[in-house]
Design goal:
There is one protein chain. Strand 12 and strand 13 (247-252) form a beta hairpin. The strands form three sheets. Strands 1-10-7-15-5-3-4 form a seven-stranded antiparallel beta sheet. A four-stranded antiparallel beta sheet has the order 2-12-13-14. It has one domain (8-329): Sandwich (Jelly Rolls), CATH 2.60.120.620. The longest helix has 14 residues, at 17-30. Helices cover 27% and strands 24% of the residues. Helix 6 (154-163) runs parallel beside helix 9 (318-329). The protein is built from nine helices and 15 strands. The protein has 338 residues and is α+β, with helices and mostly antiparallel strands. Bound molecules: fe (ii) ion. Fe (ii) ion binds next to loops.
């Protein structure tokens, strides 16, 4: 196997001090942050399967990056973090996010990442994590011309990416993750030398960021230090409400579950941008020319399995086919303590 090192760039500092403090204010001003829950399940190939069962199964089977196996419900709660979208294309949902959306440093680093000159920022979102929470090792949901998360199961898109069979249609996306206070624990762990290489950790520190290809490079978030709180019984639909002065409340409807100080939470803002080779490339995507179809994708994957001497039976249930694809094409890093 060849030795690959994926490029990444660290920003330290990312913004001016005042701008960085402004991001914390922006988060508070935004108001309650909801729990990130999985989008509706698909019919057909993805029917009855969680969108990211690839990463979830790996987390539960391995106990995460450090091999800490535990009760299924506790494990699930650890990874139910909070997310809100601050900008989506031209649409601004958090006032004041504009300079971050168009951050020149991110744009320049993105050009280098894929050696592509046209960068189009696509989305800015915030993640909030509580003490005891962590994010399972995964690669992000990629996008291909004609195949994105609006129309196809997320795990299938991840399979496509790792199969390497659809490079021609891939939309390279640069992702930056940034932090605005020093967090105890909650390091960003990534595998720039691939799943078989060593993990590198980046501390979540005030006014810093990393930019990399998170669709290719496995990454996750180590557990946020659990100083005085037990991991709460997280339930879908819970929200984090800012009370001001750095206090946040976890609520289930009207019920207050727990109160947190900003310093013990983990706050990150992510940025994603499409990277185009030229205007024709961008146009091909915008005008949906040369799009993939689901039939072509499944036929291509089946043909590859046949080539590997693993033919797919005609009567194989969709669920089993999905599990087979994930097992065959996605190779997660081994947990350090296993
Ligand atoms: Fe990610």
């Amino acid at each position: 196997m060849g030795h690959i090192v994926h490029k990444f760039e660290i920003f330290n500092p990312l913004l001016t001090d005042a701008e960085a403090h402004g991001m914390v204010q922006l988060c508070e001003d935004f108001g309650p942050h909801g729990m990130y829950s999985e989008e509706a399940l698909n019919e057909g190939i993805g029917e009855g399967l969680p969108q990211r069962f690839d990463a979830a199964m790996n987390f539960i089977n391995t106990g995460g990056r450090k091999g800490q196996k535990e009760d299924l419900m506790v494990a699930a709660g650890r990874t139910n973090y909070f997310r809100e979208t601050y900008a989506y294309g031209e649409n601004i949902f958090a006032k004041g996010i504009e300079p971050f959306l168009n951050h020149q440093g991110f744009v320049e680093a993105s050009k280098q990442l894929f050696d592509r000159p046209i960068i189009e920022p696509a989305i800015v979102f915030a993640n909030l994590m509580l003490p005891g929470q962590e994010l399972a090792v995964h690669t992000d949901v990629p996008e291909f011309r004609g195949a994105n998360r609006k129309i196809m199961p997320q795990w299938l898109l991840v399979v496509m990416q790792h199969s390497g069979l659809f490079e021609e249609w891939r939309m390279p996306i640069a992702t930056a993750v940034s932090w605005y206070h020093d967090c105890e624990g909650g390091e960003f762990a990534h595998y720039p030398e691939g799943a078989n290489g060593a993990a590198e950790t980046v501390p979540a520190q005030f006014n810093t960021a990393i930019l990399t290809d998170t669709d290719t490079v496995f990454h996750g978030v180590d557990r946020v230090a659990q100083l005085s709180h037990e991991p709460p019984p997280f339930k879908p639909g819970m929200k984090l409400h800012p009370l001001g002065k750095g206090q946040w409340q976890l609520r289930d409807g009207e019920d207050v579950i727990e109160t947190y100080q900003w310093q013990e939470m983990r706050f990150s803002i992510s940025w994603k941008a499409y990277c185009f080779a030229d205007e024709a490339d961008r146009l091909r995507w915008r005008e949906a020319k040369d799009d993939l179809s689901l039939d072509f994708i499944l036929d291509t994957l089946k043909a590859e399995l046949l080539k590997r001497d693993k033919p797919v039976a005609d009567d194989l249930a969709a669920k089993d086919f999905a599990a087979l694809l994930v097992a065959e094409f996605i190779h997660f890093p081994e947990p350090a303590a296993a």
